[in-house]
Amino acid sequence: MTGRMLRKRALSRDDGPMVWSVIDEGVLHRPIGSPQIVREQLEYLTEVARHPKVAVQIVPYGAKAGAGLLGAFGIAEMRGIPYTVYVEGQPHGRTISDRGLIAKLVTRYDTIRGEAHSQPLSLKVIEEAIRIWI
Per its UniProt record, what InterPro entries does this chain match (predicted)? Predict the structure, then answer.
């Protein structure tokens, strides 16, 4: 089974994880693949964003969260305590367990999220982008 299907199944478990994603608005308009592929991906994103264990927020073009332009990263928490961060990079990402660096990245995430649209408005922004790709 593919990783994506395993992750999707994990959300359905009673003890499944919560997922909070903050996405730059530019991603909704970047032509990666055909218009049909982009539209299908955005439709899937709206489906996932409606899941009760998922929050998707869009950072608008006008946001001043320059920290979000420094690169993608994911924070893993257990019982509300961040314990590791995966930082995207080329050619390979890296996992960070240093408490000081984790604290800095959590602050960066909070800064980016503070500039993002609310979840309901983010869903509307994604739905508007879907109409552009038709």
Answer: DUF5753 (IPR043917)
